[in-house]
Design a protein that fits this description.
The chain is mainly alpha-helical. Helix content is 56%, strand content 8%.
Length: 172
């Protein structure tokens, strides 16, 4: 973790900021539209992001290295106003729920492939992928375990269930 001390890192949520603080880095909450120029000007020198986002932003123009840590996960969801959903005929409600389950399975199956493909695009354009040391991964696991434990203390029961379901999906 020594190599992370002093980094000025763009984070996108509270948990990412907690991780960066725990390793001695300085988290910066920036709108994504400001990340590229902030990297360019030195306001920040690193960013927590996904490989598709790094490709979309052409981060190879402003960064040299990519170190996959897998310490955070972004989730995406489609939300529907409950009252509006309940007004739909039952067959439409069921169709929406069915397609949602199908899309979830498809995403779990395809995201790892997409990640590797996007990493390859970054590499082709000059980003060097650096494997994190086993010690760094172990240290980060401990930090993130503590952050998760703190969150679980205050999470509502349904949040804990969602978390447990997530752990099963990622086989932890």
């Amino acid at each position: 973790m020594e190599e992370m001390k002093g980094l000025k890192t763009r984070t996108y949520d509270k948990n990412g900021a907690l991780v960066m603080e725990a390793v001695g880095a300085t988290p910066h909450a920036l709108p994504f539209s400001e990340v590229y120029t902030s990297l360019q000007t030195g306001l920040i020198d690193s960013v927590m992001t996904s490989t598709p986002t790094a490709v979309d932003a052409k981060f190879w123009e402003v960064l040299k290295y990519y170190e996959p840590l897998n310490i955070t996960i972004a989730t995406n969801m489609v939300t529907v106003n409950l009252k509006a959903f309940q007004k739909l005929p039952k067959d439409q409600q069921n169709a929406l729920l069915k397609i949602g389950r199908e899309m979830e399975k498809e995403m779990w199956a395809n995201v790892p492939k997409l990640d590797k493909a996007q990493e390859a695009i970054s590499n082709k354009n000059g980003i060097v992928t650096v494997a994190a040391s086993k010690k760094l991964i172990a240290d980060l696991e401990k930090i993130t375990e503590n952050i998760r434990a703190d969150w679980l203390k205050t999470a509502p029961p349904e949040g804990k269930k969602i978390y447990d379901d997530f752990l099963k999906k990622v086989k932890r």
